[in-house]
Write a structure and sequence with these properties.
The complex is a heterodimer of chains A (128) and B (533). Chain A has 128 residues and is α/β, with parallel strands linked by helices. Chain A has helices at residues 18-29, 43-53, 70-80, 96-101, 117-125; strands spanning 8-13, 34-40, 57-60, 85-90, 107-110. In chain A, strands 2-1-3-4-5 form a 5-stranded parallel sheet, with helices on both faces. In chain A, helix 2 (43-53) packs parallel to helix 3 (70-80). Chain A is globular and about 35 Å long. A 5-stranded antiparallel sheet of chain B has the order 2-1-5-4-3, with helices on both faces. Chain B has a 5-stranded mixed sheet with strand order 7-9-10-12-11, covered by helices on one side. The longest helix of chain B is centred in the middle third of the chain and has 59 residues, at 272-330. Classes of the chains: A alpha/beta (128), B alpha+beta (533). Chain A binds chain B through residues 15-17, 19-20, 22-24, 26-27, 29-30, 63, 65-67, 91-94, 111-112, 114-115, and chain B through 310-311, 314-315, 317-319, 321-323, 325-327, 329-330, 333-334, 341-342, 345, 348-349, 472, 474-476.
């Protein structure tokens, strides 16, 4: 996917924890090419929003409010926003292998590596 | 036998005189018999010699009797009686001697002086034939007697062998009559029970049974009377000095020659050592099982800890790490208000970590029994008031109904329990929240009620376990999963209990029961003052 000078629409979902959402928002705020278009607390809310917001990037946690986990929500989100890249950004390292096997997940990043979130997003979107 | 022979001497002397012989002749005949008796009385080394002398003496008595009766044929029966008597020796020698004696004596005497041997014309005419007949009859009687004593000998041998086995076994072997009276008692029984045979034979066998097992014996006897056996029945018996023995009893009916049950034979084996070993094995197995269970529990605890660490500790840690990464990069473009927001978020995350670590340490102390409990009389109204003060920021709507009473507990622990209950009610339940207490026979029961959803039924059985969280609870609702396990542990450490009841019509009711304090009440502040001093 090629992206021009227009800002990338980042769509952040970080479980139910507002502080964690703030972390992701702040990390992307340092790069002017990104803007945070929407935030959701649950996968169900995110699926509804993906349809209207048409994000280019979705940062998804695994443990979420509501019945769906991030890994379960990934293919549904991809269906709603086929052009979006999905990064599974989670503290749950037990799902790493499953995340790598899931086609709709473009990248897996543990929460202990916040410094790699923006570079990973750039790599996926072809930004240099 | 010798005595019988001795008796023949005076008997024959009297018989001679009665028959009309001269006293001198009668005494002469008697003295022949007495000579045999005298010789047989000498201390012979071999038993065969006196047996032979008695045999010869008795048969001579028969000959003298026949002779003095004038060959009276009925007097010959004396021979047969003597031959049967001789079988008591259980020896061939006197028999062979008797046969030879009769054959020769009747042959010779029948030829030389037939009237002195027979009063029968045929016998007088043919003395050797009649001597042979007598010899055969005596030999026949002898053979029958020998067969009897051989059988007897065989039977006695078997009895002796059995008796030797019974006497040498370590098992107690005893016989009883049908009413339970002991009739025989072997050496094994002496060693096992401590009673000598003469002490117990004639007594009731119930003296061996502990009072609570005496009715067993009635049951056994009922079965024995019906001809049944009691096989390897394990029970307890008492020794003479009152020690309890574990024994295995096998009881069989004793029958007479017509098959009627006349008593019971009991074989008792001491299985105390086996029982001790079994019990030791069982204890060992129990200990192993307990150790295994503890190991599994601690393994599970470790797994739970890892899970908690991976999520609950890593969550806020990631938040801190994220901000620490983001802030330097955005420092210049971040407003002061945003910076304050970041610092507040970092503080919240750090406090979450601190609270979790504190809870984990408390659980660990409770489980290893290292909780220090400073029990004292705590004023209940004051304790509730202080606990509510700690939760003041969560809002009002708490109603209290607390009697003037004191509990015997550690005030810090009581406050922690009450704070947990009230916080839970405000956080997960709905107002009004009610805190009430009542006295109950030396105990104080405290209940904290709310009017929310109540605890899901499937969660109630495990709600006091550590790391327990209801299924499907959201992260906002999830605590550390340690609060209630800490509450239960602290209540136990203070001699109390905790439990849950559904509230009516809806909501939860968390309960606490602690010992009531007796005597004067010291308030929390006086305790603190005393510490300061």
């Amino acid at each position: 996917m090629s992206v021009d000078a227009v800002a990338v629409r980042v769509f952040a979902i970080v479980e139910d924890d507002a502080d964690s959402r703030m972390v992701v928002r702040t990390l992307f705020s340092e790069d002017p090419r990104f803007s945070v278009a929407a935030e959701a607390e649950s996968a169900e809310d995110a699926i509804v929003m993906a349809r209207t917001e048409e994000p280019d990037l979705i940062v998804l946690d695994h443990n979420l409010d509501g019945p769906l986990t991030g890994l379960e929500a990934a293919p549904l989100l991809k269906q709603e926003a086929p052009g979006a890249k999905i990064i599974l950004f989670t503290g749950d390292d037990e799902i790493r292998r499953k995340a790598l096997e899931e086609d709709s997940v473009d990248a897996y990043l543990p929460k202990s590596r916040p410094d790699e979130l923006v570079p990973t997003a750039c790599r996926l979107l072809g930004l240099h | 036998m010798l005595a019988i022979l001795w008796l023949h001497a005076p008997g024959l002397a009297i018989f001679g005189v009665v028959q009309g012989f001269s006293p001198a002749h009668s005494v002469f005949e008697a003295s022949i018999i007495a000579s045999f008796a005298l010789l047989a009385s000498l201390p012979w080394r071999s038993r065969k010699i006196p047996a032979g002398l008695v045999s010869a003496g008795l048969l001579t008595s028969s000959a003298v009797l026949v002779h003095m009766s004038g060959g009276f044929i009925e007097a010959h029966f004396h021979f047969f009686v003597m031959v049967v008597l001789l079988s008591l020796y259980e020896d061939w020698t006197p028999f062979l001697l008797a046969v030879a004696y009769v054959a020769i004596h009747h042959g010779l005497a029948g030829t030389l002086d037939p009237e002195s041997v027979y009063n029968h014309p045929n016998a007088i005419a043919d003395p050797w034939k009649w001597a042979a007949i007598h010899g055969f009859m005596i030999a026949g009687a002898g053979l029958a007697s020998i067969a009897a004593w051989k059988l007897n000998e065989e039977f006695r041998g078997r009895s002796r062998r059995l008796a030797a086995v019974v006497e040498s076994t370590d098992d107690a072997v005893l016989t009883t009559s049908l009413d339970g009276t002991v009739t025989s008692w072997n050496e094994g029984a002496v060693r096992m029970y401590g009673y000598a045979a003469e002490e117990i034979v004639g007594q009731s066998v119930t003296v061996l049974a502990p009072p609570d097992r005496r009715n067993e014996i009635d049951g056994f006897m009922k079965r024995i009377r019906a001809g049944d056996r009691v096989q390897s029945f394990e029970t307890v018996r008492l020794t003479k000095d009152g020690r309890a023995l574990h024994v295995s009893l096998t009881i069989s009916p004793l029958r007479d020659h017509e098959g009627r049950v006349t008593g019971a034979s009991t074989i008792a084996r001491d299985i105390t050592r086996r029982k001790e070993l079994e019990s030791a094995l069982r204890q060992y197995a129990d200990r192993l099982e307990t150790a295994n269970r503890k190991l599994e529990e601690s393994n599970q605890t470790l797994k739970d800890f890892v899970a908690i660490a991976s999520h609950d500790l890593r969550g806020p840690l990631s938040t801190i790490l994220g901000f620490v990464t983001a802030i330097p990069r955005t420092w210049d473009s971040t407003s002061d208000e945003q910076k304050r927001e970041f610092i507040a978020a970092i503080e919240r995350a750090a406090r979450r970590i601190a609270r979790l670590v504190e809870d984990l340490l408390t659980v660990s102390r409770i489980e290893s029994g290292q909780v220090t409990v400073h029990k004292e009389a705590v004023d209940l109204q004051r304790a509730v008031h202080e606990a509510l003060g700690r939760t003041a920021d969560l809002g009002n709507g708490i109603q209290t109904r607390i009697p003037a009473a004191s509990v015997h507990a550690d005030p810090d622990h009581l406050e922690r329990i009450l704070t947990n209950y009230v916080t839970n009610a405000l956080k997960y339940g709905e107002r009004p929240v009610e805190v009430e207490a009542r006295e109950d026979d030396g105990w104080i029961e405290i209940r904290v009620r709310d009017h929310g959803r109540g605890v899901p039924e499937d969660f109630v059985p495990r709600m006091w376990e550590k790391f327990a969280r209801p299924d499907g609870s959201t992260d906002r609702e999830k605590g550390t999963g340690l609060g209630l396990s800490i509450v239960a542990g602290l209540a136990r450490a203070n001699g109390g209990t905790t439990w849950y009841e559904p509230n009516h019509p809806r909501g939860s009711c968390f309960c606490l029961r602690l010992p009531r304090a007796n005597g004067s009440t010291r308030t929390r502040s006086t305790r603190e003052e005393s510490h300061v001093r």
